[in-house]
Design brief:
Blueprint (H helix, E strand, L loop, with lengths): L3 H4 L3 H22 L1 H10 L20 H6 L15 E4 L9 E4 L1 H17 L7 E4 L7 H13 L2 E3 L6 H10 L4 E4 L1 H13 L11 E4 L6 H11 L2 E8 L4 E7 L6 E3 L4 E6 L13 E7 L10 E7 L1 E2 L11 E2 L4 E2 L4 E3 L2 E3 L1 H8 L5 E12 L2 E10 L7 H16 L5 E5 L15 E3 L4
Parallel strand pairs: 3-4, 3-5, 5-6, 6-7, 18-21, 19-20
Antiparallel strand pairs: 1-2, 7-8, 8-9, 9-14, 10-11, 11-12, 12-15, 13-14, 16-17, 18-19
Length: about 425
């Protein structure tokens, strides 16, 4: 594992380290990946033009379309003989994005996740129940190998089997649970139906990722499971989970920027934004051999904070993802992100942390229908709750749905495996 000295290095020390690794990465991409070599030649750029870390802004962007256009292996920088593992990102349309790892890449990944676990308060004595899906998805195996790198105990239960998950939490006295935020809440509901109060178990930490998690959603997780909830971030194109994580200060996610260089740009222009301003996260790998990636446009919206954290780490912190540039909903000229709607709705105690958004088109006009689930045991006035939610949405977001439906507890379908779907777009049907 990388020593804490890397995570507390001065900005000058870190920049020197980043420059060396960026130069190595750029040369590898240029010499070994035809896609990047063509991009460089079009821009009149050579690896010798990258003299310091700030020169990263000279490099071309990489997009998810580039991965799909070069499917399956044209983005690889090594021969298949040197690849020891393949993963693929999930996608709603077209081919998945295929990613590859050498053994050195897997070692870097394992180290990054182990560092995440330490920042979240775990050590080699802990038991981690891994409820992320195993297989082509990077979450399951990624977390698994990081726990092993830490020297802790991993329970590779994978996704689903929720009643068995609860039994394992009881019988093996797991210290930590790794899963999506929506699944953490579903597990708490299932446990209650089984007559088990998770808050009475030794479980003290939930490491959630793979879905955006607003602050109200985190509070629900912490209250219902009696745990501390920390966010872990990553994406397959860069490495998988382990790019960044919250420490126990819960004040932004530390990016391991000796391995992954972050920028924030304007989603429309691609130009860098001012420090602390929200924009699209762009990441460059600094330590990957099989799949070097330059300035990948993640689509995730966040900010960067370079102040030293109260935990002592100097690694830059990214804010929790507030939404995606491509998730922006534009309904009759009003711009709104699903995460913004969630933050408002979950302010109310009468509401459970489950909702769905349906987009439709009526006589060439876009409409948005919002369905919200009521808290279990609710016996008040639904009209009063509806009015409060509508007023709050109007005051905070200058937006009200065309229709707001309140359903009883359990009225919105749960997801046991994979990412929860919140938005259903019917406009093209």
């Amino acid at each position: 594992m990388v020593h804490r000295s890397v995570e507390t290095a001065s900005r000058e020390e870190l920049r020197t380290h980043q420059t060396e690794r960026l130069q190595e990465t750029v040369r590898n991409a240029y010499e070994s990946v035809p896609f990047y070599r063509e991009k460089f030649e079009e821009m009149g750029l050579t690896p010798d033009d990258i003299e310091r870390i700030d020169d990263v802004q000279k490099l071309p962007f990489t997009t998810k379309e580039d991965f799909r256009d070069n499917y399956p292996t044209e983005m690889f920088a090594v021969d298949m003989d040197d690849v020891v593992r393949i993963h693929a990102s999930s996608g709603t349309t077209g081919k998945p994005k295929i990613v590859s790892y050498t053994q050195d890449d897997l070692d870097v990944w394992s180290d990054a996740i182990a560092r995440c676990l330490v920042a979240a308060g775990l050590d080699s004595d802990d038991v981690v129940q891994n409820a992320y899906g195993y297989g082509l998805f990077t979450g399951g195996l990624g977390l698994h190998q990081g726990v092993e790198e830490l020297g802790a105990t991993v329970i590779p239960i994978g996704g689903g089997q929720t009643q068995r998950q609860v039994e394992m939490l009881e019988d093996l006295e797991s210290d930590a649970l790794a899963c999506t935020p929506s699944y953490a809440l579903y597990l708490a509901e299932t446990a209650a139906e089984m007559g088990v109060d998770i808050r009475d178990l030794p479980l003290r930490l939930v490491i959630f990722g793979a879905e955006p998690c607003t602050e109200p959603m985190r509070e629900e997780i912490e209250e219902r499971l009696g745990v501390t909830g920390v966010d872990i971030y990553g994406l397959s194109e860069i490495v998988g989970p382990g790019v960044s994580v919250e420490c126990l200060e819960q004040d932004g996610l530390h990016v391991w920027e000796d391995r992954f260089y972050p920028e924030v740009v304007d989603p429309q222009t691609g130009e860098p934004v001012e420090e602390g301003e929200e924009g699209e996260l762009v990441l460059t790998t600094l330590s990957k051999d099989a799949l070097p990636v330059l300035r990948y446009r993640t689509g995730d919206l966040t900010t960067l904070n370079y102040d030293t954290c109260d935990c002592g780490r100097t690694a830059v912190r990214m804010d929790n993802i507030t939404g995606r540039a491509d998730d922006l909903l534009i309904v009759r000229g009003v711009n709104v992100y699903p995460s913004e709607i969630e933050s408002v709705v979950l302010e109310f105690d009468e509401v459970a942390p489950h909702y769905r958004i349906d987009l439709r088109r009526d006589d060439n006009l876009d409409t948005l229908e919002l369905t919200v689930e009521l808290e279990e045991g609710f016996d008040g006035s639904t009209d009063d709750v509806r009015e409060k939610i509508l007023n709050r949405l109007s005051n905070v977001l200058s937006f009200t749905p065309d229709e707001l439906t309140l359903v009883e507890s359990g009225g919105i379908a749960r997801t046991e495996v994979g990412k929860v779907q919140r938005v259903y777009d019917h406009r093209g049907q």
